[in-house]
């Protein structure tokens, strides 16, 4: 552990800005967004959730994959080489989400476009002391503490931050800067006191244990709840856009009017949208809103865990906040749990 | 020789295809064409029967298509049988010999042919399902001595919809593969079997034990064929199915082909019934 006095935070951030693009939460139209800051004064550390999660820095809403000449068949990959970047003040839920994205994009055939951006990005996270918004349920999903993925992690001790370094990249961000002090015994005591004091500030909002989620969802495949919330779902895909762990994409070609030069582009897609699972010939493997919604919930609470060893939901609450039909993960999962208990052994 | 997969993975973007030349095209039916393709010199396709490649027409898009030729005979060449059903396949059908397309792959898992040795094999093909199975059938027939009894059950909508007519004729004449074909709707002059594909199953009298069934066809066919194969007593782990899903990336990233925790493009497209029977979405 090291100590960063609060009055030196801005000086550190300005120092980082000399050789990094620094991205941080900042206010915009009454909400918070992750954006490049042009001065340390723009940085906000006590923000509630951001509109979009930081995944946009690794998987942009739209990105070129390669350019081509359709006549000559010349092709050239587009791997964006970003400048060294620091993302500041990530909540731990978003860090857990990046952990999942890292695992998925790095498993099997590696996605080099993701890797190129990720390699150049250091993550500075911050310990959450209070729930950021009503919809968040991070404590229930075990994402209220920092995962291994962090480079630098800050814990607010009042007039100073406790600073943990999680990687060589993190060490490089603080080494030789002169802003960081050695902790005293009092700092360790204060740190433990602050940490112990934070847990009761958060409610455990899931009615079952998080380790029971895959079982709950497995038993709820034929639940009538999917039809009920499917009736309300607008298939707008908003939940997947704001989700820090959603990464599905569509691929489209763009070509000039002479049908020669073009590029292949990928854009965010959503399993909630119609036609997401339609195959050539027209068969739709998830042809109702209920089926698509169920797929999303299964994916978050069961499938991703089975495939990658990590839950697909980090409890950030963004989908609940943004859903125009007020479909929320907590209400959905707790209703499934209620119905399972009402008729044990049967499908909820 | 470099394999196409090695080349695909060596590209600095996994999404960038390798050019391939169309050397011959044959029209099978109104909707289906057979493409003979050639990779650049020094490359080999090196696929497992049942695997697919992502096929690009630059400027139009990309789609997953099963390889229908035999791995052993392929060398730098390979074949695709393509039904004209969408934007990409329409563009493909317009291409003449000499045209270039892009290919990535082969991806996923095909039929685990090593496990088929010494067993009786029943191929069950519905419509375009014969395309991926032809890759396997050719491979099995080329090494006929490794297997027990071999039978093909093939169903098409009408007698005008049969694919690979030259192969069907050659297989029927060989004598070491039992061939049964059926059509849903006969045309004038058809004196063969009429009925859905399951009506052919009683024609084969293999003992259920030690028999492999490989099933490829339209989604609607699977449920009924599975019922009958299981009723016949064929073991769940010996029934191999190929799953059609929208595989936009082929590398387990885009999410479109996911059924339950499985990315069909990676774990599949060929999976055993034992692997999928508890996945409600797979066979619905």
From TrEMBL, chain A:
<dbReference type="Pfam" id="PF17179">
    <property type="entry name" value="Fer4_22"/>
</dbReference>
<feature type="domain" description="4Fe-4S ferredoxin-type">
    <location>
        <begin position="222"/>
        <end position="254"/>
    </location>
</feature>
<keyword id="KW-0479">Metal-binding</keyword>
<dbReference type="InterPro" id="IPR017896">
    <property type="entry name" value="4Fe4S_Fe-S-bd"/>
</dbReference>
<protein>
    <submittedName>
        <fullName>Hydrogenase</fullName>
    </submittedName>
</protein>
<dbReference type="InterPro" id="IPR017900">
    <property type="entry name" value="4Fe4S_Fe_S_CS"/>
</dbReference>
<dbReference type="GO" id="GO:0051536">
    <property type="term" value="F:iron-sulfur cluster binding"/>
</dbReference>
<dbReference type="InterPro" id="IPR009051">
    <property type="entry name" value="Helical_ferredxn"/>
</dbReference>
<feature type="domain" description="4Fe-4S ferredoxin-type">
    <location>
        <begin position="301"/>
        <end position="333"/>
    </location>
</feature>
<keyword id="KW-0408">Iron</keyword>
<dbReference type="GO" id="GO:0046872">
    <property type="term" value="F:metal ion binding"/>
</dbReference>
<keyword id="KW-0411">Iron-sulfur</keyword>
TrEMBL record, chain B:
<dbReference type="GO" id="GO:0051537">
    <property type="term" value="F:2 iron, 2 sulfur cluster binding"/>
</dbReference>
<feature type="binding site">
    <location>
        <position position="257"/>
    </location>
    <ligand>
        <name>[2Fe-2S] cluster</name>
    </ligand>
</feature>
<dbReference type="GO" id="GO:0046872">
    <property type="term" value="F:metal ion binding"/>
</dbReference>
<protein>
    <submittedName>
        <fullName>Oxidoreductase FAD/NAD(P)-binding domain protein</fullName>
    </submittedName>
</protein>
<dbReference type="Pfam" id="PF00970">
    <property type="entry name" value="FAD_binding_6"/>
</dbReference>
<dbReference type="InterPro" id="IPR012165">
    <property type="entry name" value="Cyt_c3_hydrogenase_gsu"/>
</dbReference>
<feature type="binding site">
    <location>
        <position position="249"/>
    </location>
    <ligand>
        <name>[2Fe-2S] cluster</name>
    </ligand>
</feature>
<dbReference type="InterPro" id="IPR039261">
    <property type="entry name" value="FNR_nucleotide-bd"/>
</dbReference>
<dbReference type="GO" id="GO:0006221">
    <property type="term" value="P:pyrimidine nucleotide biosynthetic process"/>
</dbReference>
<dbReference type="InterPro" id="IPR017938">
    <property type="entry name" value="Riboflavin_synthase-like_b-brl"/>
</dbReference>
<dbReference type="InterPro" id="IPR017927">
    <property type="entry name" value="FAD-bd_FR_type"/>
</dbReference>
<dbReference type="GO" id="GO:0016491">
    <property type="term" value="F:oxidoreductase activity"/>
</dbReference>
<dbReference type="Pfam" id="PF00175">
    <property type="entry name" value="NAD_binding_1"/>
</dbReference>
<feature type="binding site">
    <location>
        <position position="254"/>
    </location>
    <ligand>
        <name>[2Fe-2S] cluster</name>
    </ligand>
</feature>
<keyword id="KW-0479">Metal-binding</keyword>
<dbReference type="InterPro" id="IPR001433">
    <property type="entry name" value="OxRdtase_FAD/NAD-bd"/>
</dbReference>
<dbReference type="Pfam" id="PF10418">
    <property type="entry name" value="DHODB_Fe-S_bind"/>
</dbReference>
<dbReference type="InterPro" id="IPR001709">
    <property type="entry name" value="Flavoprot_Pyr_Nucl_cyt_Rdtase"/>
</dbReference>
<dbReference type="InterPro" id="IPR008333">
    <property type="entry name" value="Cbr1-like_FAD-bd_dom"/>
</dbReference>
<feature type="binding site">
    <location>
        <position position="265"/>
    </location>
    <ligand>
        <name>[2Fe-2S] cluster</name>
    </ligand>
</feature>
<keyword id="KW-0001">2Fe-2S</keyword>
<keyword id="KW-0411">Iron-sulfur</keyword>
